[in-house]
């Protein structure tokens, strides 16, 4: 989720592209994918990880922005990634938020015309990515829809319990600025969509939404899954707030969800942090009574061990003045653990992994959201996004404390033993 302050209108970042070639239906970032059974080791691609801590991949940036979009505009960013390893296909798969615009210099101005969509990419090695040209889920399709302004911060699972047409499930954040604003920002809520193969998603029909027969702030509710007013069982008299940045897992027959959350009451924030819920059907959710379970945190990324122990990475920045970027500046991620997914360990004295401006692909800062995934080699991978000074093609834009400069958003990787 985004900081609760007005920041350059209501953008939420996304996008991608490194060295690439164009085809009618895909863009390849880096060199072409090898056959799945020929994928080299991650250490040969990224360099050896230290015995502890995170190691930035030597191949970074994996993807950079400013690629042409399918309709001839540009993909300005890629952020809020969700990444999984598909053992059946021996492929890494990623989905991320992408801002699509004709001119990034006009973002946040009266001349701004952009949309925020979800893109898809796949890779045999998790380093070299082939990016599908068309978004898998789009905003700006109907001004009456609850998510017309933006669809973003996706989380995707391949669901072994689902029917073939619902094999991939995506929960995402969406909003409609004409129908709901909260604290000067998009009033993000959560939506649900399904896909047979992960390359094109269809929203939950309005008639199947848990809000089909209920009053909402929105005119149309295709895909609408969770309103913020239902995320806090212990609070009453709530007004519309924000839920965003979902993180979804399936454990046996139970779906497990973490998400950023802001409760509003009497026109002021009543609670803020990472909340938790469970479901047996992906549509109807039982909220944890103590939400938020991690006060002050946002944009969760979660690993769940075989014994149920959760490791949770999250953003919590109270002073970002050291970072040049002014668009949702993010300094890094903290890490906590929990035996039950509800009660978490104390926050450490320092971040688990953090921004380092000495790298050209993150000179100006990080963007919100990371994805943590473990491959068949047992190596943990953290995918994250930065604002880089290189490459800096003509027409590129990064918004900094010293004004707009050229540079690009990057999709990057760090590994840990």
Describe the structure.
- It is a single chain.
- The protein is mostly beta strands.
- Helix content is 1%, strand content 42%.
- The chain contains one helix and 32 strands.
- The protein has one helix spanning 42-46; strands spanning 20-22, 26-29, 55-56, 63-64, 67-68, 74-75, 79-86, 91-101, 114-123, 129-132, 150-158, 168-175, 181-182, 185-186, 189-195, 202-203, 224-226, 239-251, 254-265, 268-279, 285-287, 294-295, 298-304, 310-315, 332-338, 353-354, 365-366, 371-374, 380-388, 398-400, 403-405, 408-416.
- Strands 1, 2, 5, 6, 7, 8, 9 and 10 form an eight-stranded antiparallel sheet that branches. Strands 3, 4, 27, 28, 29 and 32 form a six-stranded antiparallel sheet that branches.
- The radius of gyration is 20 Å and the shape is globular.
- The chain starts with 19 loop residues before the first strand and ends with a strand.
- The model is unreliable at 4-25 and 30-36 (pLDDT under 50).
Which terms would index this structure?
single chain, 417 residues, mainly beta, eight-stranded antiparallel beta sheet, six-stranded antiparallel beta sheet
**Low-confidence parts lasting 5 or more residues at pLDDT below 50?**
4-25, 30-36
For the record, give the distance between the C-alpha atoms at the N and C termini, rounded to a whole number. 29 Å
How many beta strands in the DSSP annotation? 32
Mean pLDDT over all positions: 91
Range of helix content: under 10%
Number of helices: 1
Biggest sheet character: 8 strands, antiparallel
Structural Rg:
20 Å
Helix vs. strand class: mainly beta
Percentage of residues in strands: 35-45%
